Amino acid sequence: MAIIVEQNCCSVNEKPARTAMYSAGPPKPWQMQLLQHERLNSASNETMAVHPQIMAHVAKLRPLMNRRVMSLVLVVIGVVLLGYVTGQYWGMYRSQKNLEAEWQRQAATTSSTATAAGSLPGKAPDSVPVSPDRVLTRLEIPKIQMDAIVVEGASRHDLSEGPGHMKETAQPGETGNAVITAHRDTFFRHIYELNKGDQIQVRRKGRTFTYEVTGKRIVMPEDISVIKPTTNPQLTLITCYPTYYIGPAPKRLVVFSKLVNSDGQPVNQSAQAHSNGQ
Predict the structure, then answer these.
(1) Residues 99-118: pLDDT tens digits?
(2) Which residues contact 100 (CB under 8 A, 6 or more apart)?
(3) Of 121, 172, 178, 263, which is least packed with CB atoms within 10 Å of its CB?
(4) Can you list the pairs that 267-274 forms with residues at least 24 positions away whose Cβ atoms lie under 8 Å?
């Protein structure tokens, strides 16, 4: 027996009218499938109506999410770079402390050797003299408050420990062109401030040499004329330029100086005294 369900003309609910088509009693399988299909269609229609709103919210949030991700990436990169730079400076500081201790030991050895030779010519010194290729040099520039131990060599590893003396050039204090180089972001950061007449002091093997700046020049890296030998005692300092350039600097800053004082005496008098002593 069929059930007839009346529907109000203003009603928008179609399910009672459609249910009237079904027989009374337990629903048959095909009736269950039809109801399930109608429910799925209804849910799909509701989802399609909500989908544009969700996409609109996602579109609004996407720039914010991109900015947050980019900010996080930049922070991570900054922390990594800071850690790397801190590690480099810490390693350099530790190397300089070790080199300074060795320089002090060499200075004491040189002093004791000279004292023993002067007091008792036939007596051998208590300590073993340092080999020439391991002698350390101390470089001081009062104007820029720089004080560092110079290592032998100008390789990447050498310059990570301190200013490096180019082995193929003369030693500081000797006749010829002594060349010392260092990075622009470490020991030679401020050598661009040096001007004509400023003093540079070098201490090596118990002796003190004072140089006076004669000028400076900016050259290209391939210009090797600045490291050529000279007939007079000269000290040349080289670093990359511009000082605050980001990335590998394209040029070199060269500071020239001449020897004006040796062991507290002017160069000419010092040379004469040294010649008389021999």
Answers:
(1) 889 988 888 877 665 555 55
(2) 149
(3) 121
(4) 267/233
